[in-house]
Every structure is written in structure tokens, then in C-alpha cells.
Design a protein that fits this description.
mainly beta; Immunoglobulin-like; 2 domains; eight-stranded antiparallel barrel; four-stranded antiparallel β-sheet; 2 helices; 19 strands
Length: 303
């Protein structure tokens, strides 16, 4: 399935990332139960709270692997939130123009039976915690609605509530009625009752960095290839000054699982292969440090 995703870079003022679960039963044109997990029972629920120049967003989603090797994908985008997000109830679809789903305050999407390659790529986009530029949500959602209108159900009634928020977690619930935004007869709809979500904030490794390095230095950490991968990926980076350095792999909880390099570097480009055959499927981070500089990139291992 072709992925119609266009990106326009926009600088985010701040972002918080979460991992957790979304669970619900749905019935109507299609019936089922949604319990998000992928291979090896890895939790596949994600969320992030993003503060932008004009508004803030809270985005959450999850995938569920079916017995037929396809996937159900659920995504919610709550616009005009505070940062960090606070307890609140949103109406579905809330304020906005029903003729333009991208304008809606509360966007709820369920896409059952998706191709695994598409889900892998989209899931990697939404869970990218490498920092820096972030995808423009309007462009991302335009790709979803234009490319997958025949596959998705869009929320047109209900409520979404974040009931409790702490420094490390948030919980809430929801119910919704979703319909296909394409012309069909009879009308294809899905009802979701008693949906629940629980998310824990992700703590990435924090390293001290001097604010004024004595020697200017340029450090580039390129995207790993292949990514997603199984079980070997290549990590490439460039350094333009002599310095001690290290390259390590961390899991999504911030625990170091592998030290790949720890030695002095000469100026130049380097390639390092990571064999992850002993690690479970999931999201990992490669962290490169030389002198006063730190770079990270996200890795997705799928077995």
C-alpha cells in the first residue's frame, strides 16, 4: 500500500513522549476487540504532547496485530490543548468544519485491516523521539485522508476524557461513533464503548553538556539503515575534530542495552553495525557522544 505522507518541518517548542496502552471493544459494520500489541507482545501504544507556536496537540495511538497478519490502527489527535496536557473532556468532533476533518478539534480515526508495511512506517513517524524538526500535522493527516479514505472510520460523536495527569503518567477514557467519510450505502459505522488508555512518560537518557565548548566541533549522526530492521542495522556518523567518543544503544525505558564504541576518534566518517538478534522487537535509541556534543536517532527492531 502506498504511503501518502507529505512533511513540512515546523519547530516544536516542547514535547513529552509516552508509551502505554489503549483498549476498547467496537461493533457495527466491523466487530472486534482492540488490545494493542505487536510481535513478542511488545506494547505498541504511543502518545506525545507537543507545544507549537500557535497551538498545542495531544496525539495518541496504538496498533493491534490480527490473526490474519494485518493490523488495526487507532489514532486520536486533540487540538488546542495546554502544555503540558491537563485533565479535560473533549467532545468528538468538537469545534471545526465537518467538511474539513483537519479543522476538527478532536480527530478520532480507526483503520482496521491495514497492511503491515504501512503500519510500520506510520508508527515510526508518530513515535519519532529523536528531537529537532517535527512533522506538520496538517500534512500528515492530509496524507491519511487522501490515501486511505476507503480504509478509515472517522469519529463524529462521543467524548474523549483525560481524567488524571501526573509527572510520570496519564489515564483516561472515551466512547465514540465513527463512520466512513466516503459515500457508501448502507452507511458504514462503528461504535466504541468504554475505551480506556493508560500512558507512562518516556524518560530518555540525560547527559550533561557544557554550554561553551572550547573547540568548535561538528558532529553528524545520520539515520540508521535499514530502519526498521531485523536483526542488523548500520549506524553512520561524522566528526570533524579529534576527541574521545562513545556510541551506545538504549531501550525505550532509558536502559543501556549495548555499548558499541568507546574510544578516541580522528576526524572522518564512521560506520558501525549493530546486531540486535538477542533483543526483543521494539523501539531503541542510538546515542552518540563526543566531547561536548550529543546526538540521538531512533531505531525500530521488528522480528
Amino acid at each position: 500500500m502506498k504511503l501518502y505522507l507529505l512533511f513540512i518541518c515546523s519547530i516544536a517548542v516542547a514535547q513529552d513522549y509516552y508509551q502505554g496502552e489503549i483498549t476498547f471493544d467496537y461493533n457495527g459494520t466491523i466487530n472486534g476487540s482492540f488490545l494493542p500489541s505487536v510481535q513478542d507482545s511488545i506494547t505498541a501504544g504511543f502518545a506525545f504532547n507537543q507545544e507549537g507556536a500557535d497551538t498545542s496537540y495531544f496525539i495518541m495511538g496504538a496498533i493491534m496485530e490480527q490473526d490474519t497478519a494485518g493490523f488495526d490502527l487507532f489514532i486520536t489527535i486533540l487540538q488546542d490543548t495546554t502544555f503540558p496536557v491537563q485533565p479535560r473532556t473533549w467532545d468528538i468532533p468538537g469545534q471545526g468544519d465537518l467538511e474539513n476533518p483537519l479543522s476538527l478539534e478532536t480527530i478520532v480515526v480507526l483503520m482496521p485491516g491495514l497492511d503491515s508495511a504501512f503500519v510500520t512506517e506510520l508508527f515510526a513517524v508518530f513515535t519519532d523521539t529523536s528531537g529537532g524538526d517535527s512533522p506538520n500535522l496538517d500534512s500528515l493527516l492530509t496524507g491519511l485522508f487522501l490515501g486511505l479514505s476507503s480504509n478509515l472510520y472517522l469519529g463524529l460523536a462521543g467524548q474523549m476524557e483525560i481524567s488524571d495527569v501526573t509527572d510520570s503518567a496519564l489515564v483516561g477514557g472515551f466512547y465514540a461513533t465513527l463512520i466512513k467519510p466516503v459515500v457508501t450505502w448502507p452507511l458504514q459505522s462503528i461504535d466504541i464503548d468504554s475505551g480506556l488508555f493508560v500512558f507512562n512518560k518516556i524518560s530518555l537518557p540525560v547527559l550533561a553538556v557544557k554550554s561553551k565548548p572550547k573547540v568548535p566541533e561538528k558532529l553528524i549522526l545520520f539515520p540508521a539503515y535499514p530502519n526498521p530492521f531485523n536483526p542488523i542495522t548500520t549506524i553512520r556518523f561524522s566528526i570533524d575534530a579529534y576527541n574521545n567518543g562513545s556510541l551506545s544503544i538504549f531501550d525505550i525505558t532509558g536502559r543501556m542495552v549495548k555499548s558499541l564504541i568507546n574510544k578516541p576518534f580522528s576526524p572522518g566518517e564512521y560506520e558501525v553495525k549493530w546486531y540486535a538478534g538477542e533483543q526483543p522487537s521494539g523501539v531503541y535509541f542510538a546515542l552518540l557522544q563526543t566531547g561536548n556534543f550529543v546526538k540521538t536517532t531512533k531505531l525500530v527492531l521488528i522480528k
